[in-house]
């Protein structure tokens, strides 16, 4: 049977990383290799910053530094956005807390909230949760 022209959605990119701090850099690098082309430098920076913050939170609060645990990153374009889902085994929902001006950290979710067009937390069927965030493709990504 000859190949037919049909509208098949793109297959999401998917990675699994160990619960280790080096996974943040590995996630950023992996995502950089699948960004839509052409895309602006700003779009790439914002998307990789969102991924970096979500993976960092998943490692700190979801996997809690347990080396035997893993964190997953899924990326895909759909509905005018480029979506990221970061999944971890934890059951604690991330929430925006009041900013502490003297703290050295704790601003990751504020960055995600400021940059993403939308974000949410979804429970996983087996265990844990996924934090899903989307950046509009018309902000400099292909679209």
TrEMBL record:
<feature type="domain" description="Histidine kinase/HSP90-like ATPase">
    <location>
        <begin position="17"/>
        <end position="129"/>
    </location>
</feature>
<dbReference type="InterPro" id="IPR050267">
    <property type="entry name" value="Anti-sigma-factor_SerPK"/>
</dbReference>
<keyword id="KW-0067">ATP-binding</keyword>
<keyword id="KW-0547">Nucleotide-binding</keyword>
<dbReference type="GO" id="GO:0005524">
    <property type="term" value="F:ATP binding"/>
</dbReference>
<protein>
    <submittedName>
        <fullName>ATP-binding protein</fullName>
    </submittedName>
</protein>
<keyword id="KW-0723">Serine/threonine-protein kinase</keyword>
<dbReference type="InterPro" id="IPR036890">
    <property type="entry name" value="HATPase_C_sf"/>
</dbReference>
<dbReference type="InterPro" id="IPR003594">
    <property type="entry name" value="HATPase_dom"/>
</dbReference>
<keyword id="KW-0808">Transferase</keyword>
<dbReference type="Pfam" id="PF13581">
    <property type="entry name" value="HATPase_c_2"/>
</dbReference>
<keyword id="KW-0418">Kinase</keyword>
């Amino acid at each position: 049977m000859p190949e037919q022209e049909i509208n098949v959605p793109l297959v999401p990119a998917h990675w699994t990383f160990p619960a280790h701090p080096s996974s943040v850099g590995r996630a950023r690098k992996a995502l950089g290799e699948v960004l839509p082309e052409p895309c602006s430098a700003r779009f790439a920076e914002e998307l990789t910053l969102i991924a970096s913050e979500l993976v960092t939170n998943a490692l700190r609060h979801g996997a809690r530094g347990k080396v035997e645990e893993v964190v997953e990153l899924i990326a895909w374009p759909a509905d005018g956005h480029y979506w990221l889902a970061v999944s971890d085994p934890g059951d604690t929902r991330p929430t925006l807390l009041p900013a502490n001006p003297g703290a050295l950290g704790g601003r990751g979710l504020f960055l995600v909230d400021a940059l993403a067009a939308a974000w949410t937390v979804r429970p996983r069927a087996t265990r844990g949760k996924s934090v899903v965030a989307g950046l509009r493709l018309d902000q400099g990504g292909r679209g």
